[in-house]
TrEMBL record:
An example Gene Ontology biological process: proteolysis
Organism: Lentilactobacillus diolivorans DSM 14421
Transmembrane segments: 12-34, 46-66, 87-110, 130-153, 165-184, 190-207
Name of the protein in its database record: Metal-dependent membrane protease
Domain called CAAX prenyl protease 2/Lysostaphin resistance protein A-like: residue spans: 130-223
Length: 226
């Protein structure tokens, strides 16, 4: 009975996690579609409005579920970490390592060792079409969505026991899924995205506060676009 109950719980959690991911993807897709109607301002505004509504609903749902998760089951004591000088130094150190990694990745692309990922091409194209709104989505909204889904909800659904093995597995598996969400084929760029995901997962696990992984994700996207 215990095994059956466990499998049923995990099946429901997997389905729910996929549902949250789909809600985010649908909202972001509709939002970006407004760029296809730049020659028709009225239609672009209508599509953009629908995108805003779907984004608000999806974000509210995912944030609510994350909060409910922590109230019901929070073995890692995730919450709000007190901001101290030590915490700030640690955060900046992680940011520095992440930026060094990003520069190395950019260098590999500039040397034609790796090709520019399709995800980055799409983001760049959408930003050109609607620089303000797509910039806001890519820099501000996407980090919140992705951290709640790939770090917050995922790590509280799966590998959620407070021990070293589960913590390591949570960081690595979350990073790999993050990589696959940005690069749909198993290649070098998938590994690079996965490594970025692991940076973010480590940040969430280290500080036990999702605000830090969101902030790191925000800064990474900002610096990548500038």
């Amino acid at each position: 009975m215990q095994i059956t109950s466990y499998l049923k719980t995990k099946t429901v959690q997997i389905a729910a996690w996929i549902g949250f991911l789909l809600a985010y993807l649908i909202a972001s897709t509709v939002f970006s579609l407004a760029g296809d109607y730049t020659n028709d301002i009225l239609k672009a505004r209508h599509v953009l409005g629908i995108g805003f509504v779907l984004t608000a609903i999806a974000l509210a749902l995912i944030a609510w579920r994350y909060g409910q998760q922590l109230k019901k089951h929070n073995p890692r004591n995730i919450g709000r970490t007190k901001v101290t000088r030590k915490v700030i130094y640690q955060f900046l150190l992680i940011l520095l390592f992440m930026m060094i990694f990003q520069m190395f990745w950019s260098w590999l692309i500039s040397q034609h060792i790796l090709v520019l990922p399709e995800n980055q091409k799409a983001v760049a194209s959408e930003t050109v079409q609607m620089p303000l709104w797509n910039g806001i989505f890519a820099i501000v909204l996407a980090p919140i969505f992705e951290e709640l889904i790939f770090r917050g909800i995922f790590m509280n659904y799966f590998f959620n026991k407070e021990n070293r093995l589960n913590n390591i597995l949570a960081i690595v598996i979350s990073g790999l899924l993050f990589g696959f969400a940005h690069e749909l084929q198993f290649d070098a760029n998938w590994l690079m995205y996965s490594a970025l995901g692991c940076f973010l997962s480590f940040t969430y696990m280290h500080f036990r506060d999702i605000r830090y992984s969101i902030a790191l994700h925000f800064l990474n996207n900002l610096l990548s676009i500038i």
